[in-house]
Amino acid sequence: MDKKDIYEHLAKIYLDASLKKKKKARKYSKVLKPLIVAGIILFLGLSAFLFTHLNRRLPPGSQLALVLCPDVIKINFHFDPAKKEIYSLALNKLNLSRFKALGFSAKKANYKDNTSLRVEFISPFKEKSEVYLKDISHKWQDYKIPFSDFKNISDWSEISSLSFIVEEWNVQEKKGVVYIDNVRFLR
């Protein structure tokens, strides 16, 4: 056997072996690809089904909420030169049309003080609407304000900001603190 015969023999062995591997790979790919695609479609369909039905079937008394600010907000007011103290949350044109109410907890630091709080929404069209909460308690109290109470907002699909405001004419003492916690939008 000369070199040419050896090269041809090795090439034949190599090419036959590589062709057999390709045939096996093709056989498995014809079976695996449809199974993988079917598995992905089944997974996505089941996920979408569970997501839509679990959101609709919440237990009675429970609510779905978007938590806006998990930390306690502290509005420390001192009305010597100032006339009002504002804590504002930029919502960056957040779509609130799916939600029905604003929820939060609030309390004042001084139990003797008679304090009111103004809650205000502003749309990008400069529509401004506010609700006043009279006589904030010195203990944590939950508030739920329906969006229908904010009369001057016509479109809830783009809201620019939410503000909590303490004004000089709505407090008895010139100094104090108002705490706000668990700010959320409720469905």
| Count of alpha/pi helices | 1
The number of distinct β-strands equals 9
Helix-strand pattern, N to C?
HEEEEEEEEE
Number of domains: 2
Shape: elongated
Give unreliable regions as ranges. Answer: none
Broad structural category: alpha+beta
Description:
The chain is α+β, with helices and mostly antiparallel strands. The chain has two domains: 1-57; 65-186, Galactose-binding lectin (Jelly Rolls, Sandwich). It has one helix and nine strands. Strands 1, 2, 4, 7 and 9 form a five-stranded antiparallel beta sheet that branches. Strand 5 and strand 6 form a beta hairpin. The longest helix has 54 residues, at 3-56. It is elongated. The mean pLDDT is 79.
Descriptive terms for the model:
single chain, alpha+beta, four-stranded antiparallel sheet, 1 helix
